[in-house]
């Protein structure tokens, strides 16, 4: 694992730099929410990144006569130096792969030039960098680029991006790749050692700059840039056409490529908004009153905790507002600036359209279209995101309330953390809190899921649990409370075959100052599973 310390203004927050771990596969919408503990979680991301990326960039750059600084800047602008394994978010779009976000013809030609298989170029860090460098080198040869002149590589950078819109190309070159070159970037491992670094290089790209003109403000969100898309139509009359949900997407690519694609009439798709990677810019593409074309599914309440059943069978585009985000479903974390900007936008949308501000009305694309989409992926920080939205809209979390989610990215690390011991598997059946959960088989083994929470003073607190119900769940799942000294305060049992998708009170205990915990035990007769999803301390 590594984290970013990045002086580049377009990524103001720290990010995790690592290959994605196990990720839950889309569930069959007709299947009951039962888990099979004998099946391992499938790997859906690339290979684990080495602790040092600089030597890999240097090797690929030298082998194919590409400036190492340029190779690093292109990779950072595309993926923030993460190994991504994108999905096709838009019809006609090829998925992006690896540190270089190679896709389609560039991936295939790059792999061939580097002498590696396409699969290796997708999933192996060095193979992906070599394929990217080889493709850049070929394009430079075709364009007669003076290889020692960093500025002269700009047209090749634009070509590799796959962006065809001239304004978006210019943004990608000047505000993306060459901004990285000018500002520099550093990625640190968790122990503080350097994983990758790019020293600032002052260079002006030899490429037309973005058009200097007054950009119109978004008609519904004043801080947005208005980039109207032709890909929309009228919402149907009646209640099914009233916006009642917000759908969260990832572009499976960069911000510039995203709004460029969504404003192209030939693409046949759109979204109402796109948020860039740093949160410094938002584009509005479709008016909120209009029907954007951002989700290819009819609504199925069983995928969304049984909420809003009256919309079953209705095109989800009728009643939703879509927000795309520069980035990928497979990335391990999202910049704080992007999450913050998106939360402000969602607050504004929800307030103006009277949308309920919870995880059933502000939902993942992958939740409502699980057969073909997973975005925004398992690491979108749902708990903190919904909390931010409510905070910006004036609603606050009850004083002192702590929520511990099974996805640690959603937790406030100063107050809550989640820990697994033994064999647990990621799950994503409908009704989970935050972004997924874990399940494990019951057996005579001490390998619990532990929900930790910090209290500054001794306090009496009530514990609530959240799980996804199903017929193979334990009817006596044991939640054991401990104070900071390790004293056993008591055990609450819960029937996880019932009361799913909501908070269920487990017990009230006298906790001490420091890190207290509640452990979900697996120690009972074999034949069922226990679900570790989320815990609330109030």
From TrEMBL:
Residues 21-49 are annotated as: Disordered. Coiled coil: none annotated. Keywords: Cell wall biogenesis/degradation, Hydrolase, Signal. Residues 229-377 form the N-acetylmuramoyl-L-alanine amidase domain. Pfam families: Amidase_2 (PF01510), Golvesin_C (PF25275). SUPFAM superfamilies: Lysozyme-like, N-acetylmuramoyl-L-alanine amidase-like. It catalyses: Hydrolyzes the link between N-acetylmuramoyl residues and L-amino acid residues in certain cell-wall glycopeptides. Its EC number is 3.5.1.28. One of its GO terms (biological process) is peptidoglycan catabolic process. GO terms for molecular function: N-acetylmuramoyl-L-alanine amidase activity. Gene3D superfamilies: 1.10.530.10, Peptidoglycan recognition protein-like (3.40.80.10). Residues 1-24 form the signal peptide. This is N-acetylmuramoyl-L-alanine amidase. It comes from Corallococcus aberystwythensis.
